[in-house]
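EI: anyone free to look at a 455-residue chain?
SC: sure, send it
EI:
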Amino acid sequence: MFASKIRTRLSLAALLGLVTIAAPVRAQTSGANGTHDPSRMLESDGKVYVYSTGGGTMVSSDGLVWATGTAPSWNRNLLANNEGIWAPDGIYLNGQYYLYYAMYAANKSSAIGLITSPTLDPSSASYKWTDQGAVVTGPAGSTFSMIDPCPVLDAQGNLWLSWGGGYPFSSSANSIWLTRLDNTTGLPLTSDPSYKPPASPGYPLEQGHKEGSYVYYHSGYYYLFWQTGSCCSGTASTYEINMARATAITGPYTDDRIFYASNGDVHGPGQIGIYSCGGVERFTYHYYPTAESVLGENELTWSSDNWPVAGPPATTSLNLPCAETTPPEGDASASIPDAGSDATTSTEPTDATSTSSGDAAPEGPDGSVSTVSTDGGQADGTTTKSGTGSEAGSAPANGGDGGAENTGNSSGCGCKTAGASSSRGGFAAPIGLIGLVLAARRRRRAVRVPGAPRF
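SC: here you go
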């Protein structure tokens, strides 16, 4: 999300964007598909929704053609002097949607907040966002940023949140974190032994200049994705998506490799999200086909040794609503214990061998940029890859509260499949306002301090 400062520019890209997809082919999304730091596709009442940096929403009835939607009721006062909404992401659990978002301020303080609603459809009588307050907060002086939240259920149904960014800080400092959450409130499980805020609000997973984490469970492995490189520089962006895997959600994550990088007219792909339902697996991201970023959507396949493989651009419509009788791959609800039980997270894969392929990501430009994000404007940032080590959490992944009912997919569709209704979503913002935001970011960039985060 520090790259998210530059993300203000990305938000512009998202707003204006035309879509092309990673891999050697062009993306097939269209309509109001401009976005920066897109959430995963969240399904609600027969449509899928994506939320973006800047606070905007977009909606689709087929996953390919997008329209602008109604923005949620964010708590824009969560953090003093904040620069707007950054990189929202959500999950469907306990009959409601948990939508997490981040905020950042120029003094390097940051916070992640949570809002909830029974539906994502603004036309529904039950549509109502409730502010649940702060999830984690990082005061000025912290050595990592509390940005880029990603909720996920482990194989036992425990709720976690991966988050973090390391751009303005040392390349040896912890940057990507994992915090155990209460399955009912969606807030930190304070009884978890790793929860010792603000210095250690969970399990450290990665170090260095990394951000935009996403955790996905598949066939006995947890896959951790993150970005390195520089973002928000149009077709000059060098963002790329990296990955590693572990047999426990708290790590250690090993065999780091590149999952998806710039190719063809896809420049600076970042902020991955995964949709999995009804036998369909796709990953979404933002990228720059021009000066503005748009939504990319590709098929997700798997290698013979259980590594995710970036497939071609998605060209077929999603079958919505997606109703299935068995949990989709990547959906931890398959083994959710009764509420109140104590769950332990350690899943042994059938095949624990893998050979790392792909060179390390190229070094991005050093330095950082601050940006201002406003409604409809995306904050964007740049990232430099620094450090390759993974720092595993020392404590086992277990939780005090058991899993709750999950009719959606924690790392996939995040869906509620009952019924279908009309709703529009998209990233909307006046172009003039976006221009002002970008101009502010450029001014900050001009005075940035070497080694500071690329926002």
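EI: The chain has two helices and 25 strands.
SC: 👍
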